[in-house]
Recover the amino acids of this structure.
C-alpha cells in the first residue's frame, strides 16, 4: 500500500510539556507547549502534513494524585484512570492546540499551508485480556524516593517500580493498542488540511463489552505504540518519535554505550530481541518503529525533542528503515 512521504506522525514525549525538575506550574506548561509548537510548525514550513500525538505519563499521574488527595482530605470520590486520561487529553490538547495556532499566525502560515489545528478526545480500543493487566509496566506520575514510594504503596495499594531514568514511579497496565475509535474523523480533518492532535497519552483505553458497547478500562496506552497504529492507518510515510535522548544507544547507560545513526528493520528486531531496550523506556519506541516499518512505513525516526528539524533532515537522531534501504 502506497505511503505519503510528506505525511508525518509526530509522537511528542512527556518532556514536551514538563521537563525533569519542573514544578508543573501553568507558566512552565505554556512555555514547554510553545517550544513543542515551534517544532510542529517547523515541519509545516518544510512542507510536511503533520499529525501529532503526545504522552501524558506525568500529567495523568498528577491528576490521579489530585483525586486521591481529594478523597483523603475532603472525602471526594476519585475518578477512574480512564477518566483521568481523558482529562489529560483535554488539558494538554488545549494548550498545544493554542500554541500551534498562535505560531502558525506568527509565521503567516494559517489559511495558507494549513486551515487550523484541532485536538480530538480519542478512545483507543484494547483487548481486556491483554497480559499487561496482570503485570503492569507503564510509568505514570512524578518521580519519588524509595521510602516515599513504599509509603504510598502501603496507603493506596499502588504499584511502584524503579524508573530506568532514576527514582521510583507508579506503574499501571499498558495494553497493546488495536485501533483508534475516532480515526475516520481524524482522517477527514487531515485530508482538509488541518493539523490534528489525537490519541494523547495513547488515547483513553476502551474495550467492546458483551453488548457491543464501548467501555473504559483503567489503564494507560503507550503513546508510541498508539502513534504507530495512527501512522499505519493513515498511510503516513514517516513516524517520528521525539524524546529526551539524542538517539538510540546499544548498551545504554554503560561505559561501552554505542550510538546508532541508522538501523535496518532486521537489525532493530535483533537488538530488541537481545534486550538492549528497556520496557517502559526505549523498548516501546523501538517496537513502534519495528511495527511501522513491518506494516509498510518508509522511515521511523527517534530523536531528541529539540532536534526534530535536524532529524527529519537526517542530521540527528536514529532512523529505522526497511532492509533494502542502503545506509546512506
Amino acid at each position: 500500500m502506497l505511503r505519503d512521504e510528506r505525511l508525518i506522525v509526530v509522537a511528542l514525549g512527556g518532556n514536551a510539556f514538563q521537563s525533569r525538575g519542573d514544578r508543573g506550574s501553568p507558566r512552565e506548561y505554556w512555555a514547554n507547549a510553545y517550544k513543542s509548537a515551534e517544532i510542529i510548525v517547523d515541519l509545516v514550513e518544510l512542507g510536511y502534513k503533520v499529525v501529532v500525538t503526545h504522552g501524558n505519563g506525568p500529567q495523568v499521574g498528577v491528576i490521579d494524585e489530585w483525586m486521591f488527595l481529594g478523597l483523603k482530605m475532603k472525602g471526594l470520590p476519585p475518578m477512574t484512570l480512564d477518566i483521568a486520561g481523558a482529562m489529560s487529553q483535554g488539558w494538554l490538547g488545549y494548550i498545544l492546540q493554542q500554541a500551534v495556532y498562535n505560531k502558525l499566525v506568527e509565521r503567516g502560515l494559517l489559511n495558507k499551508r494549513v486551515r487550523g489545528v484541532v485536538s480530538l478526545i480519542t478512545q483507543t480500543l484494547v483487548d481486556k485480556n491483554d497480559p499487561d493487566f496482570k503485570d503492569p509496566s507503564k510509568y505514570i506520575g512524578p518521580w519519588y524516593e524509595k521510602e516515599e514510594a513504599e509509603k504510598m504503596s502501603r496507603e493506596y495499594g499502588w504499584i511502584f517500580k524503579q524508573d530506568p531514568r532514576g527514582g521510583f514511579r507508579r506503574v499501571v497496565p499498558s495494553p497493546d493498542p488495536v485501533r483508534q475509535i475516532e480515526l475516520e474523523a481524524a482522517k477527514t480533518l487531515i485530508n482538509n488540511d488541518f493539523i490534528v492532535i489525537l490519541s494523547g497519552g495513547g488515547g483513553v483505553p476502551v474495550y467492546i463489552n458483551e453488548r457491543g458497547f464501548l467501555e473504559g478500562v483503567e489503564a494507560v496506552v503507550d503513546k508510541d505504540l498508539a502513534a504507530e497504529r495512527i501512522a499505519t492507518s493513515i498511510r503516513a510515510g514517516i513516524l517520528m518519535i521525539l524524546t529526551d535522548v539524542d538517539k538510540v544507544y546499544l548498551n545504554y547507560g554503560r561505559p561501552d554505550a554505542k550510538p546508532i545513526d541508522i538501523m535496518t528493520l532486521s537489525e532493530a528486531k535483533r537488538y530488541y530481541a537481545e534486550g538492549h531496550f528497556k520496557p517502559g523506556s526505549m523498548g516501546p519506541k523501538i517496537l513502534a518503529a519495528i511495527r511501522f516499518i513491518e506494516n509498510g512505513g518508509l522511515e521511523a525516526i527517534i530523536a531528541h525533542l529539540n532536534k526534530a528539524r535536524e532529524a527529519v533532515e537526517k542530521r540527528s537522531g536514529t532512523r529505522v528503515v526497511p532492509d533494502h534501504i542502503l545506509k546512506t
The radius of gyration is 19 Å. The domain at 4-62+87-120+176-203+218-321 is CATH 3.40.1160.10 (Carbamate kinase).
